[in-house]
Write a structure and sequence with these properties.
GO cellular component, one term: plasma membrane
Number of strands: 2
CATH topology: ABC transporter involved in vitamin B12 uptake, BtuC
Number of helices: 14
Largest sheet: 2 strands, antiparallel
InterPro entries: ABC_transp_permease
Shape: globular
Helix content: over 70%
Order of helices and strands: HHHHHHHEEHHHHHHH
Strand content: under 5%
Membrane topology: Multi-pass membrane protein
Organism: Mesorhizobium tianshanense
Strand order of the largest sheet: 1-2
GO molecular function: transmembrane transporter activity
CATH architecture: Orthogonal Bundle
Structural class: mainly alpha
CATH class: Mainly Alpha
Length: about 325
């Protein structure tokens, strides 16, 4: 009993509970049909939210006001860059992925330079950058008809025993991110800055360098996400990253990361991503209209956050 109470006290557990309840409700509605396929599909789609969610988590952990709103535009441009470089050739897959990563890293670095040089809030800097990136993406990627190399498209959609390969690799990545956050100097520095930026500076943390690396990391993960999305959906699109603006923030908050900074939770990002994907699946299964879907999604997200916050207050 004590161990159960301890587990329920973890903010991130509520995202997994929410995902399980949504899945159960959907399976009950369908009479048990398609439950396994729903989990496979949820894992396939949650991967892309988890990747950008981890980057957003590191940024938000830096403290109040830190957020990367350029991710959707970053994803769109990187997907076009990756497809253009790969040009349908399997031998260019690695080069295309590196190009997408480089594109994302450049965007992330530019975001921080705007924040640092102009002394403007991150929300303004990254939103402004997104408009510039979108303009570049429209001129560069609009009408792009290049399909991904067959090997890359197959890899992005491949499964092992019903489990997407990308999901397995992303789990390994998130384990690495959790280790980096809790065990490495970089991760501990991010947490320290989020808890008290002045105290971190007085303790010898190079605040500017850590913030620069964090925004660059977020940009790099956005670039990687764009390439993988283009492979999964078999083509680049200017609007391919639009849904990941709010989703990347929602999975961080629902997953138990503090918006005030200084506290992050990697497992919760996975739970929240699965919750959001399964929630959308459930509402589609119930035949709910788009407007009501958005309303219910918002209300359920608030409910999960409130439940997590209530358990935190009880500790």
């Amino acid at each position: 009993m004590a161990s159960l109470r301890l587990l329920l006290a973890k903010p991130w557990i509520w995202s997994f509970i929410g995902a399980a309840l949504v899945w159960l409700a959907t399976v009950t509605f369908t009479g048990g049909y398609g439950g396994g396929g729903m989990i496979t599909a949820a894992l396939s789609l949650a991967v892309f939210t988890v990747i950008v969610g981890v980057g957003q988590m590191f940024v938000i952990t830096l403290g109040p006001g830190n957020v990367d709103l350029s991710l959707p535009a970053n994803i769109g441009l990187a997907s076009a860059v990756a497809m253009k470089v790969m040009d349908g050739n399997d031998q260019m897959i690695a080069v295309g992925l590196l190009a997408a990563l480089a594109c994302g890293m450049a965007i992330g670095a530019a975001n921080y330079l705007l924040i640092w040089a102009l002394r403007i809030p991150p929300i303004i800097a990254t939103l402004s950058a997104s408009f510039i990136i979108q303009s570049i993406d429209i001129s560069y990627g609009r009408g792009l008809q290049i399909k991904p190399p067959p090997g890359f498209a197959d890899f992005a959609n491949r499964q092992i025993l019903g489990i997407p390969v990308l999901a397995i690799l992303t789990v390994l990545f998130t384990i690495g991110a959790a280790i980096a956050l809790q065990r490495m100097i970089y991760g501990r520095s991010v947490l320290a800055i989020g808890q008290n930026i002045r105290a971190a500076w007085l303790a010898g943390v190079n605040v500017g360098r850590i913030r620069f690396l964090t925004y660059t990391l977020s940009g790099a993960l956005g670039g990687l996400d764009g390439a993988l999305l283009a492979g999964y959906f078999r083509g680049a699109n200017v609007d391919i990253g639009n849904e990941y603006l709010l989703a990347s923030i929602a999975v961080v908050v629902i997953g138990g990361t503090s918006v005030a900074g200084g506290k992050a939770n990697v497992p919760g990002v996975w739970g929240a991503a699965l919750f959001l994907v399964l929630l959308l699946t459930m509402l589609n299964t119930f035949g709910v209209s788009a407007g009501v879907r958005l309303l219910l999604t918002g209300l359920i997200i608030v409910g999960v956050i409130t439940a997590a916050g209530g358990q935190k207050a009880l500790r």
